[in-house]
């Protein structure tokens, strides 16, 4: 079976109302539809990569291509886990967890998007809490990083409530103008001290080798 060769298909991260997992091809098409209907208000551009600043059909294809690219380029030394977020069985967005040289650095980064109709309901915070639990409790990460534009208060607020601390700024060029991002960092100690929802993770053990947390054929983490 495919899951025998790609055990990430069996990974499940659950909160009281959300389930995060690798989508099937049919569910990936549904996610593309969610993105096509919008992930932020018109006229805004909250992402450094302007993948949403295109017509709906192209935006949908970008979701497909990003997911296939991350899966196809996966190595234990450089990986991006693209998890679909489901509420009551319906996909509402994507939560990413990524790392380079995780076995040595024990550091992850996160990114996400959420369908516009699902904004303002606390889902963004809950899905980030879920993937942070996977990182810290499941993969034994030491730190987690994220970044948001300084004029984008919603994700910055989520990060503060989850215990992240400022970690400097980054200046980039987006569509011919300078933009400033606030970098943020969450340590294991701060994560352990935050109020967070109950999260359960299943199907992780067969995936550990892919995350670079154990050597091939080694029985222990």
Automatic annotation (TrEMBL):
<protein>
    <submittedName>
        <fullName>GNAT family N-acetyltransferase</fullName>
        <ecNumber>2.3.-.-</ecNumber>
    </submittedName>
</protein>
<dbReference type="InterPro" id="IPR000182">
    <property type="entry name" value="GNAT_dom"/>
</dbReference>
<dbReference type="InterPro" id="IPR016181">
    <property type="entry name" value="Acyl_CoA_acyltransferase"/>
</dbReference>
<dbReference type="InterPro" id="IPR051908">
    <property type="entry name" value="Ribosomal_N-acetyltransferase"/>
</dbReference>
<keyword id="KW-0012">Acyltransferase</keyword>
<feature type="domain" description="N-acetyltransferase">
    <location>
        <begin position="17"/>
        <end position="165"/>
    </location>
</feature>
<dbReference type="GO" id="GO:0016746">
    <property type="term" value="F:acyltransferase activity"/>
</dbReference>
<dbReference type="Pfam" id="PF13302">
    <property type="entry name" value="Acetyltransf_3"/>
</dbReference>
<keyword id="KW-0808">Transferase</keyword>
């Amino acid at each position: 079976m495919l899951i025998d060769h790609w055990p990430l298909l069996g990974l499940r991260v659950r909160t009281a109302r959300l389930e995060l997992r690798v989508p099937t091809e049919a569910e990936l098409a549904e996610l593309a539809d969610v993105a096509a209907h919008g992930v932020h208000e018109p006229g805004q551009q909250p992402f450094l990569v302007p993948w949403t600043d295109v017509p709906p059909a192209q935006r949908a294809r970008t979701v497909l291509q990003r997911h296939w690219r991350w899966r196809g380029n996966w190595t234990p030394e450089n990986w991006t886990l693209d998890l679909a977020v489901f509420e009551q069985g319906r996909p509402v967005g994507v939560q990413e967890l990524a790392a380079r040289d995780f076995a040595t650095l024990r550091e992850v980064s996160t990114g996400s998007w959420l369908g516009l109709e699902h904004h303002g309901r606390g889902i963004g915070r809950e899905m980030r809490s879920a993937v942070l639990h996977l990182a810290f409790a499941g993969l034994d990460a030491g730190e987690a990083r994220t970044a948001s534009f300084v004029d984008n208060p919603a994700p910055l607020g989520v990060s503060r409530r989850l215990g992240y601390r400022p970690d400097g700024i980054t200046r980039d060029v987006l569509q011919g103008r300078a933009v400033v991002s606030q970098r943020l960092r969450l340590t294991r100690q701060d994560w352990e001290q935050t109020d967070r929802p109950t999260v359960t993770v299943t199907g992780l053990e067969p995936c550990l080798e892919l995350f670079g947390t154990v050597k091939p054929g080694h029985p222990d983490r």
